[in-house]
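Here is the promised in-class demo. Please do not try to memorize the tokens; focus on the logic of going from shape to residues.
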């Protein structure tokens, strides 16, 4: 199973929207997909219409109580896509895990030898605490949503430094599969400038597909649906399908053929 963490310590960059829609797009192309909601806000879970009362087991149980993964997985309304939902209990997990041995490897242990899915996305909280460290220690690679705004590169540099530390201490094989530009507004000259700066800095690491500011992307979660289901023809949905095609092209050949 390919494991991809979706992370950026800056909030409001479209991270959860990306997690919901890229997971949906991958399932739509035939991949058996698992999404792990590791954000205490649980927005990825809500985005699939799985509300608090329906979350019987969660990523909190998985990390803190070491519940078996199969007991924490719930199906979504999307064929081929399952989720490990998050609950507010997860907000206390960082404190509860502080004194635990191998506290950064809890998620990796939980996913070990899991073969029911071909690809797993991990939606991280907007911080670089123990939850995100667990995701980065577990992941094969990292997908970084980056909002097209002035402070984007500063936040990205901090994340890249964290990735280096994780590579040195916990997960030497961690890579970065790409950076996706989000909330792109062609009417705003600053957006174009930031996008150019990011591409100049990171080159081919930046996906060609960009995610536009799109009302339908914002509306979809309130209906408990991914944008690709809520309005598959909108600009945001088309952008995520394009991103999924690019992502598949960057996956290791032996994994794609498996």
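The designed amino acids, position by position:
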């Amino acid at each position: 199973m390919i494991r991809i963490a979706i992370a950026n310590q800056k909030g409001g960059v479209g991270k959860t929207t990306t997690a919901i829609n890229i997971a949906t797009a991958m399932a739509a192309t035939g991949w058996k997909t698992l999404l792990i909601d590791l954000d205490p806000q649980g927005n990825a879970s809500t985005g699939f219409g799985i509300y608090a009362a329906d979350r019987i087991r969660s990523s909190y149980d998985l990390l803190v109580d070491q519940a078996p993964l199969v007991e924490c997985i719930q199906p979504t309304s999307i064929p081929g896509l399952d989720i490990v939902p998050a609950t507010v209990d997860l907000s206390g997990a960082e404190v509860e895990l502080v004194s635990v041995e191998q506290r950064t490897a809890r998620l990796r242990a939980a996913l070990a030898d899991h073969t029911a899915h071909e690809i797993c996305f991990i939606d991280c909280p907007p911080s670089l605490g123990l939850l995100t460290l667990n995701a980065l220690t577990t992941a094969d690679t990292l997908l970084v949503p980056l909002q097209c705004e002035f402070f984007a590169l500063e936040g990205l540099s901090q994340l890249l430094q964290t990735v280096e530390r994780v590579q040195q201490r916990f997960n030497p094989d961690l890579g970065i599969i790409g950076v996706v530009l989000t909330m792109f507004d062609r009417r705003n000259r600053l957006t174009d400038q930031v996008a150019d700066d990011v591409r100049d800095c990171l080159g081919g690491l930046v996906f060609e597909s960009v995610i536009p500011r799109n009302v339908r992307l914002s509306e979809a979660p309130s209906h408990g649906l991914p944008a690709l289901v809520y309005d598959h023809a909108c600009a945001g949905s088309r952008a995520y399908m394009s991103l999924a095609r690019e992502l598949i092209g960057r996956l290791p050949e032996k994994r794609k053929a498996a």
